[in-house]
Specification:
This protein is mainly β and 375 residues long. The chain is built from three helices and 28 strands.
Length: 375
């Protein structure tokens, strides 16, 4: 199985990467982007026996970071219009929210098959729900294999509908109506046992765009089953994730990765564990490691937060990329940094037992002639 190569290599030295060939039509292409990695990054992926995937709505790219046969880092880019939330399950299914679609990608390769003698995983969009522009953020998969996503414009959790743009399944108690107004900026979703467990929102605002005035300390974590705020006082929280019984959250406006510690009454308090120099979004785990996504706080909605003071206090500049955090020591042990045109990421996933993955865009010329069937 072959197709045009759409990958670039990365090393401990900075390199220049051009936009991928064979990309979807009518999607703005980014300018040149520079990737660099820590000296131990490739060895880290090999030890993990995993690869990484992350999204950037700014560049309209879904990225895959894996290893080549010679041990070098390989970065594959797939152009997708405004890719956002990612969810990977052990059935090798990758679910993605994008500008106006919820897509389910399937790996079409058998264990012994390769694309271009390089890629051991080839994700192809097999189920595409057209939702319209809902500004969908995080996405998860329930016990039935159906997508559940954060419908940010309508302030609710939703699932795809065969007739309508979406089906509402849950709404915060402080949102008075199902209306096309981003009031609280609902964004993050933590799944547990195939069901929504917690969500994050920038505020409890019930008026259009009200969340923008509460960015510094209006953020909340909500228990979905109880429809109750269980942690408050956060600064633009994102990416809640359940891991080994703990609720982890990115307090994006302070640049901190931490856990929510609950008391006997079920109320939580955010406990920061690690500071990372950037506006944090995207969180996944592997063993004793947390992989965190960092963005540069370039635009007004990211500025004027406590993150600015923390960067100044640590004599640091914000950067864009991934940091691999050792949870035992609270330190960054390896990293991938992005400079140039791309400055904002949204979500990421660890792909266990995948060495060098790739994907094909739903609007690309390659997908027209890629025919697979059961053997």
């Amino acid at each position: 199985m072959t197709k045009p190569d759409q990958t670039q290599a990365a090393s401990a030295d900075t390199i220049v990467v051009n936009p991928a060939a064979g990309s979807a039509k009518n999607i703005p292409r980014p300018e040149q982007t520079h990737f660099s990695v820590s000296s131990g990054f490739a060895q880290r992926l090999a030890k993990m026996q995993a690869s990484l995937s992350f999204t950037s709505y700014q560049s309209n790219q879904l990225y895959f970071v894996g290893l080549k046969s010679d041990g070098g880092v390989n970065i594959h880019q797939t152009m997708i219009r405004k890719p956002m939330g990612l969810s990977y399950d052990r059935n090798q299914t990758l679910t993605l929210s994008s500008a106006y679609q919820i897509m389910r990608f399937e790996n079409v390769l058998e264990p012994q098959e390769r694309v271009n003698q390089v890629f051991d995983t080839c994700f192809v969009p097999r189920l595409v729900h057209v939702t319209g522009n809902l500004d969908a953020h995080d996405v998860g998969v329930d016990t039935h294999g159906s997508a559940i996503f954060v419908n940010t414009r309508f302030n609710c959790l939703a699932r795809p509908s065969t007739r309508h743009s979406f089906e509402e399944i849950w709404r915060p108690h402080f949102i008075s109506a199902l209306v096309n107004e981003d009031r609280c900026h609902l964004n993050g979703l933590a799944m547990e046992d195939g069901a929504p467990k917690y969500v994050t929102a920038i505020s409890r605002s019930d008026t259009i765009d009200g969340w923008r005035d509460r960015r510094a300390d209006g953020g909340v974590v909500i228990d979905v089953a109880q429809n109750k705020v269980v942690c408050e006082g956060l600064s633009m929280p994102h990416s809640p994730r359940m891991y080994k019984g703990d609720l982890w959250v990115l307090n994006s406006g302070t640049g901190e990765l931490g856990v929510v510690a609950f008391n006997t009454a079920g109320q939580g308090r955010f406990e920061p564990r690690v500071f990372c120099p950037g506006f944090l979004r995207g969180l996944s785990f592997h063993g004793n490691l947390a992989i965190v996504g960092l963005s540069k706080p370039r635009y007004q909605r990211f500025e004027g937060l406590e993150l600015d003071a923390k960067l100044q206090a640590t004599d640091s500049e914000p950067w864009c990329g991934l940091q691999i955090i050792d949870l035992d020591t609270g330190t960054c042990v390896d990293w991938l940094r992005i400079d140039g045109a791309v400055a904002e990421l949204y979500d990421l996933e660890v792909l266990p037992e995948k060495t060098c993955p790739m994907a094909i865009a739903p609007e690309s010329p390659e997908i027209i002639n890629l025919i697979t069937h059961a053997k």
